[in-house]
Every structure is written in C-alpha cells, then in structure tokens.
Amino acid sequence: MNPAHWIDTAASPPQPLPDSIEAALDYLVGATGHPVYMHWTLSRLKRGCPSLADAKREHPTVFALLLEHDAAVEYWDRGRLRIVAADDAPPPETILERVLHQHRRRFHEVADADTLLPANDAAAPAATGVWLMTLEPPHTGAPNVTCAASTTGGWLARAGRFVNPSMVTNTLGVTDDAQAVILFLRDRAGRSPHTRRAYLADLRRLITWCERERLGPLSDLTRHDLLAYRRALELQPGHGPVIGEETPPGTRQRARHGHPVTPRERSAAVPSRALAVVSSLFRYWLKTGYLTANPAADLSGGGAARAAWTPTRIMPASVVALCDAVVADLVPTGLTPPVWTRRYAIWSLYRYAGVRLAELVWSDSTGLPRLDVDADGNWTLHVHGKGNKLRAIPLPSVCVPPLRAYRLARGLTPEPGAFERLPVIHSEKRDALGASGLYDEVKAVFRAAEALVAAGDGVTLALLRAASTHWLRHGYAHTLVVDHAVPLPVAQQLLGHASVQTTAAYAKSDLAQARAFVEGSFPAS
Questions:
Q1: Domain segments of the chain: what residues?
Q2: Cβ atoms of residues 494 and 480 within 8 Å
C-alpha cells in the first residue's frame, strides 16, 4: 500500500500521510494518541529505561518475551494493545491499513491525493469544506453534500443580492450559495450524520418551495419570501420524512425491530424545526460575513416552542429498576465477560450521565468523549455536545464500578491516565463503537428486562419496547429537576440545554413538587 494515498481530514487543511510505512506509523501514533506498531529489542528497551529493573517493571510482557526471543512487536488491534514475538507479529503494512480503516471517518483513501488538496491558501477554506463532505464513504450512511447540491442542477451555484462581494469581510471566502451551504453543514452539523441528514432534509424542503415559487437563490430571498415560506409550512405541517430516510436514529431502530412508530415521529421535520434550520443558516451566513443582511431574523418561533414543550417519554422508576437488575446480574449465557462489562458500562453512562446518543460516539478530531479522575477519586465525563459545546459531567459513585470493570476487561488500567486519548467505548471490529452499536446495546438491556416483567403487565412491556437512549436522558433530567429540585441553571449545565426553558419543562411533567412547594408556602393555621 502507499500511505501517501491516505488523507487525514482532521488536519487543517487536509494532508496526505507520509509516503513511507515507518513514517506513516509514527504519524498515526501522534494522531490517535496510542502506540500503533512498535518493534522492541533489548537495546531499545535499555535506551528507554534507566535500568533492567525499571524495564521489567514498566514493560513486563515485553521484557519476558525478550528473554526468549531476539525481538518483540507491540501493535494495536481492535481497540487494544497486543504484544507478541516478532516472528508471530503481522507485517507493519497490515496493521497500518487496519488502523486506517478503523479510523475511516478521519482517514480516507484516494487514487491521487494531490488533485484533492487546495492549490493555494486563498482557496483553502472552500476547497477544504467541499473536500471534507465529498469524501465521506458511502457505506457510513453520511450524506454526500455535493451530490445533494448537484441534484438541483445549478440552482445553488449562484449568488443573490445579499451576498457580500468583499473578501475582506466575507470570512467564508466563497462567492456562491453551494459552497456556503457546504461550509454551514460542516461547521454546524459536521459531527453527527443524523443532524446532517435532518439539516439537508429541511434545506431541500426550502429549495423545493423556492423552485415551485420561482424564487432564489437562497441569498436572494427577502423577509417577505421567508414569511411566505413559513405560512406554507404552517398550512402543511405533515410533510415529514419517511422512515429510513431522515428520521431520528431511535425511530429507525424501532421501525427496524417491528415496533410501532407514532405519527409525530413519522413527521419529525415539523415547521418549527424546519424554520429553526433556515434561521440558523442565515444567522451563520451573516455572522461569517457571507451576507450583508439577515432576512430570517426572528423567523423561527423556537422560544415559544420550547415554552410549550413538555417531556413525556420518561420511564417510571420501577421500570428503570428492572433494567438496573438486569445489568447488575451475572453474565448471561451466550455472552463473553468483556461484551457484558461493556454493555454494563454503556448502560451506566446513559443512565447516570444523561448524555445524548451521539455524545458517547468517539471523535478523533476532539479526542472526546473522555473520562478523567481527580486526586480525590472523583470521575468526570467530558463530551462534545450539541451546538459544539464542551460539557463536563460529574459521574456519581454508583457509575464508577462498571467503568472500572470494563476498563480491566479491555486490558486498560482501572482509572484513565492524565493523557489518555482512547475511545471510552470500543468496538470489536474497530477502535470505537458507533451510534448504532451504542443504541443496540441499550436496547438489548431493555429486551432482557422484559423477562422480569410480571405476567399480564402489558404497560411495562410496551414501555420497554418503545424506550430508547433518550428516555434515559429524560429520566436523568426528571431526577435532577423534579426528584431532587436541583437549581435549573445547574441542571441546564449538566444537560447541555441551550435554553433554561427546556430544562424547566421537566418541572411541568410532575405536579407533586409544585404541590409540595405551594403547601409549604401556605400552611394551614
């Protein structure tokens, strides 16, 4: 293989790997944060340690192998380090190719890398944006933005009256809507393929309406045009995506397993969300200098929608207790201890950290999510949340034992090191478990809990079959806001809500706390 045909998309601008196997392996060590392929000899071991006693203590497996063999190889394989005698080790190019495929969301193979890199610094922002989106492998399920734009012919590849022609203040450095849309999707929805699909669906809806009304391009729309679009959405609120297309991951999973999907889920792209995406696009364009005005200002009624929203998908404590009993039980027949401890760890993080599904998906570019432990033994989960917000979530002590057990089963230290840069949850086929795998592990806990349901309790069975990872997030928020009256700003920070109104909505889900406050304020004489 030629390493130079592999491009690191996390670099800015994207760059090819070194052309030699050894240099490419060294590059991957810095990019991934863990050893990839290291050839050990006794002399190399002595160079890295002050004495043989230190070498034996720091590298016991390598030291034992070198007593019987001339050389040993330490290499990365499926989320863990393996150390074998040099004669039994796979060749370095095999490990290099395997690691590149494991990180295929970051590294992409192309036939001719030179033709895909920006020719000059002035073109770098636009070229990088187009390159990042067009090189997404088709099997990952992520949308090809350039193909989406090309399906409208040359409709997007134009500029309207509000485009800023000055490259001094136009920080995007592009001059047509097609490139500006690609950069918007990369910056605002580049982390989650589900968010990209949803954003693309809403932008296609706007473009279809513009074509029908003979308006456009997007940068030429006036406030009058966008108000007319809002009225059109309000008159036809049921134009939602079809299952399996742009629906949320939980909805697709329930449909795949034969569970019912509600009309509300089937019509996920409601007018308020569609308008929110359009408003976000024009705000981004104005902020980056691509536009000279924002015709979509105050177009979205997001605040009113948040104020009226009340969470309903909250599992009763008795149902959650059934699931807790499942994961705390012995390893079931048919599962290996590493797989079972991983499932327990995944359940514990969603149960006690209140994270969104995508927030436990590993990102090479940010090195998140990440666990750390302070001097007092307190564990914290760091995630890259919605809206590109970084969030530190303190983990309760009940969450720590499953994480320690999983790390030990994975061959890691019980507690993460200060500079550890590894996926929190690994996959057997590649370094990190993706959103679909995480979702399936939680659903497996729900399915196993069905065996503990009392005969004739159809309500609990229906709840377990409909539940998803987001139900655990709702339960986490309900516990904070309702059960323990955590101050709303603190709960908002832990949940990563953009508005405190969203956090406050959980207080409306249960009148018991409000009733207690009222009774305490006006005691009987």
A1: 3-109, 136-308, 317-518
A2: yes
- Predicted confidence (pLDDT) at residue 463 exceeds the cutoff of 80: yes
Q: Which amino acid is at 320?
A: V
> Radius of gyration of the chain from Cα atoms?
26
Q: Average pLDDT for residues 271-279, to the nearest whole number?
A: 86
Q: Is the peptide bond before 396 cis (omega within 30 degrees of 0)?
A: no
DSSP-assigned beta bridge partners for residue 73: 39, 84
pLDDT-derived band of residue 250, with 50, 70 and 90 as boundaries? very low
**CA-wise closest residue to 14 among 23, 2, 4:** 4
The pLDDT, as a whole number, for residue 304 is 54
More confident residue, 454 or 304: 454
For residue 412, is pLDDT > 50?
A: yes
DSSP state of 87: G
Q: What single letter denotes the amino acid at residue 368? A: L
Token pair of 169 as six digits: 């203040």
**What type of residue is 325?**
A
**Reading across the β-sheet that carries 80-85, which strands appear in turn?**
37-41, 71-77, 80-85
- Do the beta carbons of residue 323 and residue 445 sit within 8 Å? yes
Residue bearing the bigger pLDDT, 312 or 40: 40
HEC string of 419-448? CCCCCCCCCCCCCCCCHHHHHHHHHHHHHH
- 128, 32 contact by CB (below 8 A): no
Nearest by Cα to 304 from 256, 270, 330 = 270
Sorted by sequence, the CB contacts under 8 Å of residue 54 that are 6+ apart come out as none
The dihedrals phi and psi of 484, each to the nearest 5 degrees, come to -120, 5
Kind and range of the H or E element at 82?
strand 80-85
Beta strands 80-85 and 107-109: pairing type? Answer: unpaired
| CA 447-450-454 angle, 5° bins | 175
Map 334-374 to HEC letters: CCCHHHHHHHHHHHHHHHHHCCCHHHHCCECCCCECEEEEC
Left if phi > 0, otherwise alpha if psi is -120 to 50, otherwise beta: which for 486?
beta
Where b means 16+ CB within 10 Å and e means fewer, 4-24 reads bebbbbbeeebebbbeebeeb
Answer whether CATH 3.40.630.30 is correct for domain 317-518: no
